[in-house]
Design goal:
The chain is mostly helical. It has three domains: 56 residues, no CATH class; 98 residues, DNA polymerase, domain 1, CATH 1.10.150; 170 residues, hpI Integrase, Chain A (Orthogonal Bundle). Helix content is 51%, strand content 7%. Strands 1-2-3 form a three-stranded antiparallel sheet, with helices on one face. A three-stranded antiparallel sheet has the order 4-5-6.
Length: 385
């Protein structure tokens, strides 16, 4: 947590109907893990400061107990966990992952292999044959305490992939990380309304962030992730067929997506401005750059997005990444087939699109309309003998 304007970490003042109230806000990862919750500190500033500092002391004690100083790995011996991680990272199987996945997995491995097990040993020094399900679950719980449920689940998936590689290359080994009973939070169901998206785009332009509003529009109309949209250049557009060529960073899939009418109207002005500034050659320019023309840094982008969203009075649990889900759900409600969704979203199997085939009011209305139409046809056909 960063020190705020009050000089106390986690302390936040909010103007409510009943008056100005202070709160203590712990890190989001610890909130998701159920370890710390937001606390109401009252309306008195001095009391709120004292209580916030007390909670910060408890948080520091927790972190001190969890984040013990880890000993560095000594010599890495064959058939150990650390040896497996490095062997897997150098394998052709690991090379098939997307660059972002490889980077994340390597970070997870460096964290996991230096974790102390129940007997005080470094996990990376353990031999593969002695790693048990209980040890895997112990590592999982330690990771939850330190980083939260989401990061812990991703780290265990990385370990599961490495040990699966060991079962394929070494044999006669169990995969302890495939037997864990992990806590999987419910899937996100947040969806943007058209009004919320319009409000966000207008507010972004008013606050001097037109590229952020443009990114949101493209996430919705092209059904892509914000990170991929931020990397798109004007040269990725094919004017003759009015297609956008997008290379997705997560799995490396290349998708070719036609423009919607809404997107074409929204980008015409930005395209004209970019051509005026460069004399017409805009192929190498980012569509959604910063004011300096460079690509947005992830932290700066998320901070600016949250600032715009709050100024537009959007709920805090609504994130820009939810626009991809919103677009997919809208397409499913409109009657798009699984193959059509996969063609735009870049998914390779139908199990990936199941979260978007959710029950919506639009689908229910379409179902009832089809029933009424069917009944009218049956009545017009007359009796059947």
């Amino acid at each position: 947590m960063r020190t705020n304007k009050y000089g106390v970490r986690g302390l936040k003042g909010v103007q409510l109907k009943r008056g100005f109230i202070y709160f203590w806000i712990p890190p989001l990862s610890l909130q998701k893990a159920g370890l710390f919750k937001c606390k109401t500190l009252g309306a008195d500033f001095s009391v709120a400061v004292a209580r916030a500092r007390d909670w910060n002391s408890k948080l520091a004690e927790h972190r001190g107990a969890v984040n013990l100083k880890k000993p560095p790995l000594s010599k890495i011996n064959p058939m150990t966990v650390a040896y497996l991680f490095r062997t897997f990272e150098a394998s052709p199987r690991f090379a098939r992952y997307a660059p972002r996945t490889r980077q994340d997995y390597s970070c997870f491995y460096r964290e996991v292999e230096t974790t102390l097990t129940q007997d005080g040993r470094v996990f990376g020094h353990a031999t593969l044959s002695e790693v048990t399900r209980q040890q895997g679950y112990f590592i999982y719980e330690r990771y939850i305490l330190a980083h939260g449920n989401d990061s812990a689940n991703k780290a265990m998936s990385a370990c599961q992939a490495a040990f699966k590689y060991a079962t394929l290359t070494i044999g006669e080994l169990i995969n302890p990380f495939s037997l864990l009973e992990k806590y999987n939070p419910p899937p996100r169901r947040q969806r943007w309304t058209d009004q919320q998206l319009d409000d966000f785009i207008r507010k972004a332009e008013a606050m001097g962030y037109p590229s952020i509003g443009r990114c949101a529009l493209m996430c919705m109309e092209l059904m892509q992730r914000p990170g991929d949209i931020l990397s798109i250049k004007w040269g990725a557009f094919e004017p003759r067929e009015k297609l956008w060529h997008i290379r997705q960073s997560k799995r490396g899939a290349l998708v070719r997506i036609p423009e919607t009418t809404r997107l074409r109207v929204g980008l015409n002005m930005a395209r004209r401005i970019a051509k005026q500034q460069t004399g017409g050659n805009i192929g190498d320019l980012l569509v959604c750059p910063t004011v300096t023309g460079k690509r947005w840094h992830r932290h700066n982008f998320t901070t600016a997005v949250r600032r715009v969203a709050r100024a537009a009075k959007l709920p805090d649990d609504l994130q820009i990444r939810d626009l991809r889900r919103t677009a997919a759900t809208e397409g499913a409600s409109a009657g798009a087939t699984p193959a059509e969704l996969m063609a735009v979203g870049g998914w390779v199997n139908q199990t990936s699109i199941r979260p978007y085939l959710v029950q919506t009011l639009e689908q229910a209305a379409a179902f009832q309309a089809k029933r009424d139409a069917y009944r009218r046809r049956q009545m017009g056909a007359g009796p059947i003998f």
